[in-house]
Design goal:
Keywords: Cell membrane, Membrane, Sugar transport, Transmembrane, Transmembrane helix, Transport. The chain is mostly helical.
Length: about 475
């Protein structure tokens, strides 16, 4: 029982409501992941005469079906980012369920490729909005000693959804999947509506102090039956929060353009840009969307859909390892291992596919699966798993929130570019040259990080 009394134990009495809230929120993360993973095996079916729909996709249409997620993500970033402070976290959490539900209706009723375009756009809006509101809401309700774990659960839940999407897209009928997946966003919407309260910080900022106190007591699991000494101690914490949010901002200078060209800011832009470029142009997220096509062109005789499911499991493992090592080994070491490992894995994958095209490699059919597993695992322990934490910590404190938000919008634009050009590169360059290009970008990132990326483990959020 002493284990449950530790402050960093998720089942500690104080942390239980926060954990329950995080799990409910991640229903939409899982559902979003299913939408991402489902596309990979489904796209291969839609490009054949046996397409479950009344039409067959060509390469140019495939690239747009894939890349509309990126446009939607940018839209979701900007939309939720602009209304979050006005309407609050809870309303934004509710809103992101609506476009995702519409996505699955469009998938079911699709009678032309335009249905899929709009559906993927809506799915992207949910994903883009989720990556804005989830971290902010969790930072406002979670205790500092468990905040990192809760934040990591977002990507872990997305990757669980991706694996489920791979399996469903492979083994279930096209028109059955939407009705099964719709259970997630609908359950999420009802749970948020009934069980999740607005964060105390947002309520304080809007002057609603009574509701803020109730919200604070709810998320810290403070009961009227608790000893008065414990209640008084907790309410002192609430009063400090209220003073900081209502008076602290009066003494802070407003952010100006000059703050974005300060020496500290200028030093941050280089590492931030390389983090963004390496995260997307390494192909890690793009390959998740097109994994079945990659294995189909790899020269392996193994079932592409089976290989894709294995990759989904490896991706979950990589993200989980990040939650264990990020605060132990540090960000820079994980980013170096990640970029170096991805560069080597993709280079080797490219050589295998090159030689598979000119000689019989059937006895080595397992090699593409092993190489891609290394690529995805090593990519997730650094480039994916440490992405948000590195991006936030690299900026100076005064512009951190705004700069990180703008960086996420830029990242979403890169998502669109990569999802659009990747199938075209496979068609025109071939799989080998495409993999070598991604390896070259990641290799450059490895060299850059080795010389210029600062270690930020243990860095206070109050320092530059």
């Amino acid at each position: 029982m002493k284990l449950f009394e530790r402050p960093n134990c998720l089942l500690n009495r104080r942390n239980r409501v926060q954990l329950f809230t995080t799990l409910l929120m991640n229903l939409i993360s899982i559902s979003h992941g299913i939408g991402v993973g489902w596309l990979s095996p489904t796209l291969r079916k839609l490009q054949t005469p046996l397409s479950p729909l009344s039409f067959e996709l060509v390469v140019s249409e495939v690239s747009w079906v894939g890349s509309m997620l990126g446009i939607g993500s940018m839209t979701g970033n900007i939309l939720i980012g602009s209304i979050l402070g006005r309407i609050g976290n809870k309303w934004c959490l509710l809103l992101i369920a609506i476009p995702h539900s519409c996505f699955w209706f469009l998938v079911y009723f699709a009678n032309s490729v335009e249905f899929l375009y709009v559906g993927r756009l809506l799915a992207g809006i949910t994903g883009g909005g989720m990556y804005i509101v989830h971290p902010i809401f969790l930072s406002e309700i979670a205790d500092a000693n468990i905040r990192g774990t809760f934040s990591a659960m977002v990507m872990l839940s997305v990757n669980v959804g991706v694996l489920v999407g791979y399996i469903m897209g492979t083994h279930l009928a096209y028109h059955l999947i939407p009705w099964l997946v719709l259970i997630c966003p609908l359950s999420y919407f009802i749970c948020v509506l009934l069980f999740i309260k607005e964060s105390p910080m947002h309520l304080i900022r809007n002057g609603n102090f009574k509701s803020a106190e109730q919200s604070f007591r709810h998320y810290k699991n403070i009961k009227d039956s608790d000893p008065l000494s414990d209640q008084d101690k907790s309410m002192e914490e609430f009063e400090k929060m209220k003073i900081a949010l209502t008076k602290g901002e009066e003494f802070q200078d407003k952010i100006t353009l000059k703050d974005f060209v300060s020496p500290a800011a200028l030093r941050a832009y280089g590492p931030a840009a390389v983090i963004l470029i390496a995260n997307q142009f390494s192909g890690l997220f793009t390959m998740v969307n097109y994994m079945s096509d990659i294995f189909a062109q790899s020269g392996s005789t193994m079932d592409p859909n089976f290989c894709t499911i294995i990759i989904g499991a490896v991706q979950i493992l990589g993200t989980y390892v990040t939650t264990l090592l990020c605060d132990v080994c540090g960000r820079k070491l994980l980013m170096l291992i990640s970029t170096g490992g991805v560069a080597v894995s993709l280079t080797a994958f490219g050589f295998f596919t090159h030689y598979a095209g000119i000689m019989d490699m059937s006895e080595w059919s397992w090699v593409p699966l092993v190489l891609m597993s290394f690529d995805i695992f090593l990519g997730n322990i650094g480039l994916v798993g440490c992405f948000f934490v590195c991006l936030v910590e690299v900026f100076p404190v005064k512009i951190r929130a705004k700069a990180a938000s703008m960086a996420i919008v830029v990242c979403s634009s890169f998502v669109f570019v990569m999802l659009n050009i990747f199938p075209l590169c496979l068609a025109h360059w071939g799989i080998s040259a495409t993999m070598w290009s991604c390896a070259g970008v990641t290799g450059f990132a490895f060299v850059f990080f080795f010389y210029f990326l600062r270690e930020t483990k243990g860095k206070s959020m109050l320092e530059d």
